[in-house]
Write a structure and sequence with these properties.
114 residues; mainly alpha; 0% strand; elongated
Length: 114
């Protein structure tokens, strides 16, 4: 997929790979390494999908790492603002109330067991 998130991570990893250098020409090897990092970031750092998929991924994350306090959601205004607004609205109205119920129940189970 060549969406806004791929562009964002490609930009960041390209800057990281050439930091401190001037007039750098990226080699095929450098581009391949950047693409691999981007693929990894998109797979492991970005939660996307339907409302249920996002909820399931957030629950799996919380179950894996424990309570993490705050969820930071980002948006990129260069990539279809209406799409981002709708996504944020679904996250706030559909996903987070259900996620908070799961987190509260998990916390209560932990307290009862301890």
């Amino acid at each position: 997929e060549d969406g806004g998130m791929r562009f964002y991570f490609t930009y960041l990893f390209t800057l990281a790979s050439i930091r401190g250098e001037e007039n750098v020409t990226l080699t095929d090897e450098m581009r391949a390494a950047i693409d691999a990092k981007v693929d990894d970031a998109l797979e492991n750092m970005v939660v996307v999908g339907s409302t249920q998929t996002v909820l399931d991924k957030l629950i799996a994350l919380r179950d894996e790492v424990g309570h993490f306090g705050t969820l930071l959601a980002t948006g990129h205004d260069w990539d279809e603002p209406a799409l981002w607004k709708a996504s944020m609205r679904r996250l706030a109205e559909d996903v987070m109330p259900r996620f908070n119920q799961h987190a509260e129940a998990a916390f209560a189970r932990t307290r009862a067991a301890g």
